[in-house]
Write a structure and sequence with these properties.
Largest sheet: 7 strands, parallel
Low-confidence stretches: none
Strand order of the largest sheet: 3-2-1-4-5-6-11
Bound molecules: nicotinamide-adenine-dinucleotide
Oligomer: single chain
CATH architecture of the largest domain: 3-Layer(aba) Sandwich
Number of domains: 2
Number of helices: 11
Mean pLDDT: 94
CATH topology of the largest domain: Rossmann fold
Structural class: alpha/beta
Distance between the termini: 51 Å
CATH superfamily of the largest domain: NAD(P)-binding Rossmann-like Domain
Length: 316
């Protein structure tokens, strides 16, 4: 019997490559749809050769491309998107990919009569939270075209679910980190900025008092959440994917210095900063999918720092 096929848009990206590998491990065949805009060439080469993966180079901005890619698919994990930085610089392009592109994927999924679809939304739909932890029903105040498109994408998905019977779930990823993360990632790039300084023998520099925080969630946990949202029978859910722990920038700097074994003290640059904080309430995803983060923040950040040093040949 042939394997059930899942199409993963953006499947050659940071999160997508993990989702594809997990789906294959669960016994699915995977078809990646990615336009190579930000894909890792090593990942693409591996995917092209994998017996259970098929790589389709194509752009979700083209309806016909998406329809062709979904032919014969059992379901879809929709991850292709342009990142936040890009959305501020070019709102039109961002909406074109992140909103119109998503509409193409949802509509094609209905036409292909897929079993279900998982949509990657983002914690950035919340904007500035009024309180922590952030709950799915909190007021949303998206602040950039990227976040606006993610929020609209959730609403659009709900339209396709209720009007066209598309079984689906949306996941609000928090600050995803792990090996292979992009150096220009909007939030988590601070990890690499600090690590580069530490490796050069310089202390990480923190703006303000370092109390701004993020909910760092490991990419392997995020990929597992996406696959669980796909295999579950639940539908119509919007779920936070984080650890529930807000880690301040000051704590992060200390963890990174400790992991590298360098005798450095983080420095504080007095500066008026907008203190933003992030922590997900994850009770809904726990109850709905039985998902729990398995990688605790401190060991996850420690391992990432060690991987970074090893790649540079700079392990102590
Ligand atoms: N990384 C995070 O911290 C984070 C947080 C919240 C939400 N998300 C969301 O998760 C998803 C995956 O993020 P990621 O970090 O893996 O990003 P990524 O940039 O590593 O991966 C995105 C992939 O989509 C592809 N792509 C971009 N535009 C495309 C297009 N028009 N057609 C086809 N493919 C296209 C890129 O080539 C890339 O391989 C995105 O939807 C993102 O918005 C990520």
């Amino acid at each position: 019997m042939s394997k059930r096929r899942v199409v993963v848009t953006g499947g050659a990206g940071f999160i997508g490559s993990r989702v594809c590998a997990l789906l294959v491990a669960e016994g699915y065949a995977v078809r990646v749809l990615d336009n190579l805009y930000r894909a890792d060439p090593r990942v693409v080469a591996e995917q092209r050769q994998h017996p259970d993966m098929e790589f389709v180079e194509g752009d979700i901005r083209y309806r016909g491309t998406v329809d062709a890619a979904l032919e014969g698919a059992e379901g879809v994990v929709h991850l292709a998107a342009l990142c936040i930085n890009k959305s501020v610089a070019d709102p039109a392009e961002s909406l074109d990919v992140n909103l119109r592109g998503s509409e193409h994927v949802f509509a094609a999924a209905v036409r292909a009569r897929v079993r279900r679809l998982v949509f990657a939304s983002s914690a950035s739909v919340y904007g500035e939270p009024e309180r922590l932890p952030m709950r799915e029903d909190d007021v949303l105040r998206p602040q950039t075209p990227y976040c606006i498109a993610k929020r609209a994408g959730e609403d659009l998905l709900e339209f396709y679910r209720t009007r066209h019977g598309l079984a689906s779930n949306a996941l609000r990823f928090f600050n995803v980190y792990g090996p292979g993360q992009k150096t220009d990632a909007y939030y988590t790039s601070v990890i690499q900025v600090f690590l580069r300084r530490i490796v050069a023998g310089e202390a990480p520099v923190i703006d303000g008092d370092g109390s701004q925080s993020m909910d760092f969630v490991h990419v392997d946990d995020v990929a597992r959440a996406a696959v669980m949202a796909y295999t579950s029978a639940a539908s119509g859910l919007v779920l936070n994917v984080g650890t529930g722990i807000d880690t301040s920038i000051a704590e992060l700097a200390k963890m990174l210095v400790a992991a590298t074994g360098r005798a450095l003290e983080p420095q504080f640059r007095p500066r008026k900063t907008l203190v933003t904080r992030r922590a997900a309430d994850i009770s809904r995803i726990r109850a709905a999918l039985g998902w729990e983060p398995l990688v605790a923040v401190a060991p996850g950040i420690h391992a990432l720092a060690r991987t970074f040093l090893a790649e540079l040949g700079a392990l102590p």
